[in-house]
Specification:
Layout: H1 22-31, E1 43-52, E2 60-61, H2 64-74, E3 78-81, E4 91-101, E5 104-114, H3 120-128, E6 134-146, E7 163-166, E8 172-175, E9 178-192, E10 201-203, E11 225-227, E12 238-243, E13 248-255, E14 258-263, H4 271-274, E15 285-296, E16 299-300, H5 303-310, E17 319-324, E18 343-346, E19 350-353, H6 354-364, E20 370-374, E21 385-387, E22 394-395, E23 398-405, E24 410-417, E25 420-427, H7 431-436, E26 440-444, H8 448-451, E27 457-470, E28 473-479, E29 484-493, E30 496-503
Parallel strand pairs: 2-9, 3-9, 11-21, 17-18
Antiparallel strand pairs: 1-5, 1-10, 3-4, 4-5, 6-9, 7-8, 12-19, 12-20, 13-14, 13-15, 15-16, 15-17, 20-21, 22-27, 23-24, 23-27, 24-25, 25-26, 26-30, 27-28, 28-29, 29-30
């Protein structure tokens, strides 16, 4: 028997399986909203472990309590290469979650790119082959909080990576770093040759369940909808506003001095844990809705840490607290939790309309903001909204009036609220161009500017939901003919102080 001996072609790599789940595709279509809906066969999807709670090479750190908000801001941000702004994005982030990896808390961001685009296959091969394996994030924030004194590290005496003795008795040395606080915006994520955060990675692991910290789509049912602007709410409704806690939704029943607690999915909490709550003086309750929060001292713990505690596993949680929502007629007696480590109490709350919601939210918000529901929605049956006000001085209860004439060279924007009144004359104004994203030069106007616009004028008006002062500039959230966020940003032209007026995000 003869045989032909020659060159044999072989591939030792496992066949590539780029099958993605329908849930991931649904997230792309829901969170990104492409003009033509994406199908599974259209895209490649990978994930980035973007930042952890470890100190990075700049001396900065994303503490765990800031990571959920960072994950929210990552959605719909572009994916770049090397933070270069002179080239278009190669992909887009469509989902992000806080997960645990190797004992650290990480923000994991999922991104996609189209198979039909030029270089798509090369990008996939370089990621899966380990060439592109680290990543980074570009963002803006307002407050670098010093880990030693809690002040702005730019003006305090401490420097990152320097060691300082703390305590009255020189009891210990601590290395200074700063926490990223008041994160405003994620600009982009990038594939980079070396990430500032240790052990960043780009992964083909797309499972929505890391096995340690929940990162699955079933959690979407209990996660609130994140909003960045009050203009997204119905201005005619009132809202129940509560502090936003990283917590487990629970249902509490207290009947004949027997306390039972179950999670929102119906899973009961062990009776031994229930017995540790101070409930002897509680009024009888049937199916009262609340949030279960874990603490280590005064520091709040993560949901994953609470779940480990409930499962009898080791972790930092030392006590629990149930924050009940305000059903009609429920009043907890004073001193009901005196001396008890595990407590049940009413959650701080208020009821507010959109016009004064920002001010109300500030009075009770946590670092993660507030959670709110319209009064015609039962919190135990709906996820509500998460909202975090900007950390600036805000003037509430404002209105605007925009006066212009067709074909005229200027318009007049008047901002009104009680004793507050400011007018800006906008040059070469065109309403349609403004709403499409054009920018206009504006000046602070004198009373005579109104007379210039009397002939054939058109006046439109609406509500300023919030007006945020930023130095000499203004950020306004408006409802009416001008709907959305608008900026009046100071600039210097021809040696004069003037303003740029435009719609943000257009």
């Amino acid at each position: 028997m003869s045989a032909s001996i020659g060159r044999i072609a072989a591939q030792l790599a496992q066949p590539t399986d780029d099958t993605v789940s329908p849930e991931l595709i649904a997230l792309i279509n829901r969170n990104i909203g492409p003009p033509i809906s994406i199908k599974e066969s259209d895209v490649y999807i990978r994930a980035m472990y973007v930042v952890s709670d470890e100190v990075n090479s700049f001396g900065g750190r994303f503490p765990v309590e800031e990571q959920e908000y960072l994950a929210h801001l990552l959605v719909d941000s572009p994916v770049m290469v090397g933070h270069r702004k002179d080239k278009l994005p190669i992909g887009r982030n469509f989902h992000a979650a806080v997960v645990e990896r190797d004992g650290k808390s990480w923000v994991k961001s999922y991104f996609y790119w189209l198979k039909s685009t030029e270089g798509a296959e090369t990008l996939r091969e370089n990621i899966d082959g380990g060439i592109y394996k680290e990543c980074s994030v570009g963002f803006t924030f307002l407050f670098p909080e010093c880990s030693i004194c809690g002040k702005d590290i730019r003006i305090c005496p401490h420097e990152p990576f320097q060691k300082y003795t703390v305590g009255n008795n020189n009891e210990s040395d601590r290395v200074a770093y700063f926490n990223y606080r008041q994160i405003e915006r994620v600009l982009e994520t990038s594939l980079v040759y070396r990430g500032a955060v240790p052990d960043t990675s780009v992964s083909k692991e797309l499972a929505m369940n890391g096995g340690k910290k929940k990162d699955n789509l079933s959690d979407q049912a209990i996660k609130p909808v994140c909003i960045s602007s009050l203009s997204e709410l119905d201005p005619e409704k009132e809202y129940l506003v509560v502090p936003f806690y990283e917590s487990l939704p629970v249902i509490v029943t207290c009947n004949k001095k027997v306390l039972t607690i179950q999670q929102w999915n119906g899973e009961p909490i062990d009776s031994k844990i229930c017995s540790r709550f101070a409930y002897e003086r509680l009024p009888e309750m049937d199916q009262a809705y609340g949030h279960l929060v874990g603490y280590r001292g005064k520091e709040r713990c993560t949901v994953e840490q609470v779940e480990r505690y409930l499962a009898g596993m080791s972790g930092p949680v030392t006590r629990l607290e149930i924050k009940l929502f305000p059903p009609a007629g429920l009043a907890l007696p004073k001193g009901v939790y005196d001396g008890a480590p595990n407590r049940i109490r009413l959650i701080r709350h208020c009821i507010a309309g959109v016009r004064n919601l920002d001010q109300s939210a500030r009075s009770i918000m946590t670092r993660m903001g507030v959670q709110l529901w319209s009064l015609d929605t039962n919190p135990s049956q709906g996820t509500g909204y998460q909202y975090r006000p900007l950390n600036s001085d805000i003037v509430e209860d404002k209105q605007y009036r925009l006066t212009f004439t067709n074909g005229a060279a200027a318009a007049l924007l008047t901002l009104l609220s009680g004793e507050y009144k400011e007018k800006f004359q906008i040059k070469q104004f065109n309403l349609a161009r403004l709403l499409r994203g054009s920018r206009f030069i504006a000046d602070k106007a004198e009373d005579c500017s109104i007379q210039e616009l009397q002939s054939g004028k058109t006046t439109t008006q609406g509500q300023v939901v919030t007006l945020t002062k930023r130095g000499e500039g203004l950020l306004m959230e408006m409802i009416g003919s001008l709907t959305g966020k608008f900026i009046l940003r100071p600039v210097k032209l021809d040696e004069h102080r003037r303003y740029l007026f435009y719609r943000l995000g257009s």
